[in-house]
Amino acid sequence: MILLKRVLRGALQHPWRVATSLAMALACTLLVLVLPTVTQVFVNDVIMQRRHDLLLQTAALGIGAIFLRQVLFTLRTYGNNALEQGLIHDLRHQLYDKLQRLPIKWFDRHSSGETMSRVASDVPATERIIVETIDQTIPALFQFLIIAGWMTFQSWELTLVTLAPLPVIGLITHLHTRRAETRWRESSESSAALHSLLHDHLAGIRQIKAYTMEPEALARFDTASREAGKKHMRVMKGQAIVWPAVSLIAECGIILMLGCGTWWTLEGRMEAGTPIAFLVAWGFLFDPISRINPLTQLYLGGKVAAQRVFDILDLPDEAQLDEGERPNEFIGRVEFENACFSYDSDAPAIRDISFVAEPGTSIALVGPSGAGKSTLLNLLTRFYDTDSGRILLDGHPIDSLSKEWLRRHIGYVTQENFLFNGSIRDNLRLAKPDACDDEIWAALESANAANFVRQLPATLDTLAGERGARFSGGEKQRLSIARALLKNPPLLLLDEATSALDHETERLVQQALENLRADRTSFVIAHRLSTVRHADLICVLESGRLIDSGKHEELLARGGLYSRLCEASIRP
């Protein structure tokens, strides 16, 4: 009940639309009374008393009421659809904003497909609760009470007979709902798993084709699809049994009502038009009951979806995203003091790392895969925080700084070289939203990307495709470097930023980076000797520890791991 109240609270953001919809629903319900009343007049007055003069005006009254009711229904339907889209937008906006404020660790544990399912499917299902409450449930309650009141005014005895099946129907519905909620939750979870698998397969379609894994991928998808269908059929099985039984009991009530009404008419206790009018009114009285099946499905599905949505909304935001110190200037001095971190408690990623990067210097991080090089960059961006020890930026403990401020002063080129499915201009303006085209071209020139961009038919307006699929690996890397250079940050992080470049292009990009190095502190992860040999400080890592540091010539003279890495990089 608390969850449903929380969902319905969203309607308070649109009070006038809700009030207008309910007012029209009430008017539509009152107009429903015209039809049984007109029927009663036709039988008791026009037919029994042969009042020909009442025929046309009674018929006109009935037609006018039906016409007005349909007009109001049309307006209410349009208004409710507009309300639904507004509510979906509000909640989707709120959920997406929350996702952006969650820590990276949350995304490490949840698949993109599952998250997309919550945004794309669970949000509309959640808001359908509000819309259907306004569009169906409350109007249905109005209709039931108004029709029941009218019938009671006509004949309270026949009304009791008409309502006799309701307690049995209520008991069956209650028992079914208690069991169905668990089945709806299982069905929703299996559907989310199917969406997650589909997302993974589509994202990895090149790998599937490259390794001729199509049969295996199809088999996994087939298993997940069958499981989703199986869970959904458990829901449908209960409904297939319960709702026909409800209809049977309700329709048997018609016979009971007509039987009693006919008997009392023969005895002279009521006019003939009364049971006939009750027959017409019965359809409107039990129409809300006929909506129990779809509304129950909707509420149970919406409740499960709402729980999945609120599970995310209730998560705490990433700590210090906006709060924390915001120094007036950032020179770029970085100091690691006995920094330790592990992604899980059993496997430390780095242990007791200590070194200093002076402002304007270039720090190269080298070592075998899994040595902890990318982890150090993740700690500098505060995607993760150290378990012990600390990192200082210009003497400020990094965990005292606002993450938003910190990340605005960092340029980060990752191994993935991710590009959004927008234009080249839009992708580069992520770094500087107000950048003019001249600034963009200057950044492209510095990253040696201007020539190939000029050769594109739409130049800066060329769409990158999903994840930058329209460009080669080297082109994506140069565009990513241009984006970082356009930001012009005091701290530059390059994680294998030149790994996909040919030697000539790498030389030109390195030259551009060398020109910029005097103005910023840069951390570079690379395996190529040419990339790291001119660094001011080379840190050699192995198994999460800093085992050596110094300049290129110093490390070569000492031998050890760095020397072996250099020999491996030039070995034919």
Describe the structure.
- With 572 residues, this protein is α/β, with parallel strands linked by helices.
- It has three domains: 2-195 and 225-313, ABC transporter transmembrane region fold; 326-409 and 490-501 and 519-572, 3-Layer(aba) Sandwich (Rossmann fold); 417-488, Rossmann fold (3-Layer(aba) Sandwich).
- It contains 22 helices and ten strands.
- The chain has helices at residues 2-8, 15-32, 34-47, 55-100, 104-109, 112-154, 156-163, 166-203, 205-210, 214-266, 273-290, 292-313, 373-380, 403-408, 424-428, 437-446, 450-454, 473-487, 503-517, 529-532, 552-558, 560-570, and strands spanning 334-344, 347-357, 362-366, 388-393, 396-397, 410-413, 491-495, 521-525, 537-542, 545-550.
- Strands 6-7-8-3-9-10 form a six-stranded mixed sheet, sandwiched between helices.
- Strand 9 and strand 10 form a beta hairpin.
- It is elongated.
- The relative contact order is 0.08.
Tally of separate domains: 3
Query: Runs with pLDDT <50, length 5+?
Result: none
State the oligomer.
Answer: single chain
E-strand count: 10
Total count of helical runs of at least 4 residues: 22
CATH fold-level assignment of the largest domain: ABC transporter transmembrane region fold
Strand content: 5-15%
How helical, in percent, are the residues?
A: 55-70%
CATH architecture label of the largest domain: Up-down Bundle
Q: What is the topology, as strand order, of the major beta sheet?
A: 6-7-8-3-9-10
- The computed structural class is alpha/beta
**Average pLDDT value?**
78
Largest sheet: 6 strands, mixed
* CATH homology group of the largest domain: ABC transporter type 1, transmembrane domain
Form type: elongated
Distance between the termini: 70 Å
Q: Radius of gyration over alpha carbons?
A: 35 Å
CATH class of the largest domain: Mainly Alpha
